[in-house]
Design goal:
The complex is a heterodimer of chains A (145) and B (154). Chain A is an alpha/beta fold and 145 residues long. Chain A has 7 helices and 4 strands. Chain A is globular, with a radius of gyration of 17 Å. By secondary structure, chain B is of the alpha/beta class.
């Protein structure tokens, strides 16, 4: 029974893997909107450091976030090293990787972490895409009405 | 549920991303004298509100009548009512908008104000307004976002 309760309360871990301090700052911005969060981490990839060392810190972050429901890695640039490093961990970890991280994606990930990993990944991707608007054009269109 | 909130940014990210889903609100009523006459600013603020949620911008004096009308339909009680200052919330209450809980979300710091939480700084006038409301039976809820711990500092 106890184990069941634990599982119910478990949430998907969220790790931001990015170039430099982008992820850390992005997480701070998300916390400004959503309040302080647990089970979220940011790992910055320093290109001057060895690949093995960086990969190890990503792996450690994933392990510390894993509660049995998996971990969502949000990375910045498709094709960049934070993304490729994260992808290389998919074999050994219960991990999903989404590229092109923006604030709407982090907010969406935080909002729905009790979902299952594939569903959360879908939701986060959609939120990221829908968060991009030519808002000026929307406003002009609205003002015309 | 109904949320009555003081937030000097009125509609912004915290409202859209946390309070709207938390309250399940179908209406957002912004009570602000300046905004009630500024159509462009209204359109900017309501741009990000989901289509299923109605927004309206009214003057503080219009609040009691508008809320009475809105709440005459039981389905419309899920609403967020926003004021930008303690004085506006008090003015609406004193003129007949009867609420029982007041959420104090964001009241920005300026010199001479007392910081009571990371997002709330109160002037003497603000404190007078809140104490007045509290004496009339209004519970004060100092939360910036829904999952902030409820801490009563009054």
């Amino acid at each position: 029974m106890v184990a069941k309760t634990d599982k119910k309360d478990a949430v998907i871990g969220v790790v931001l893997v990015t170039h430099g301090t982008f992820g850390e700052t992005l997480l701070k911005a998300a916390e400004t909107v959503m309040g302080p969060q647990e089970n979220c981490l940011a790992v910055g990839v320093d290109v001057n450091k060895g690949v093995d060392e960086t990969l190890e810190s990503v792996r450690n972050a994933i392990h510390s976030l894993e509660q049995g429901k998996g971990v969502l890695a949000l990375t910045d640039l498709f094709g960049g090293s934070p993304t490729t490093m994260s992808l290389s961990l998919m074999k050994s970890e219960n991990l999903e990787v989404i590229t092109g991280v923006n604030l709407p994606m982090v907010v969406a990930a935080i909002q729905a972490r009790s979902m299952k990993l594939p569903e959360l990944a879908e939701k986060v991707m959609t939120a990221g895409q829908q968060g991009i608007k030519v808002a000026g054009a929307m406003l002009r269109k609205k003002a015309k009405k | 549920m109904t949320l009555v909130r003081i937030d000097n940014r009125l509609i912004h990210g915290q409202i859209i991303e946390t309070w709207l889903p938390y309250t399940g609100a179908k209406n957002v009523v912004v009570a602000n004298d300046e905004l009630a006459h500024d159509i462009l600013q209204q359109e900017i603020m309501s741009l990000a509100i989901p289509q299923a949620v109605k927004s309206s911008f009214v003057t503080v004096d219009e609040v009691p009548a508008i809320i009475t009308k809105l709440f005459s339909n039981p389905g419309e009680h899920d609403s967020i009512i926003l004021f930008s200052s303690c004085a506006d919330a008090r003015r609406a209450f004193d003129s007949g908008f009867d609420f029982h809980v007041l959420n104090i979300g964001n009241v920005h710091y300026s010199p001479g104000k007392r910081q009571v939480s990371p997002s709330v700084a109160l002037s003497d006038e603000d404190e007078t307004c809140l104490r007045h409301l509290n004496r009339k039976g209004v519970e004060l809820d100092f939360r910036c976002v829904p999952n902030d711990p409820v801490q009563v500092r009054f």
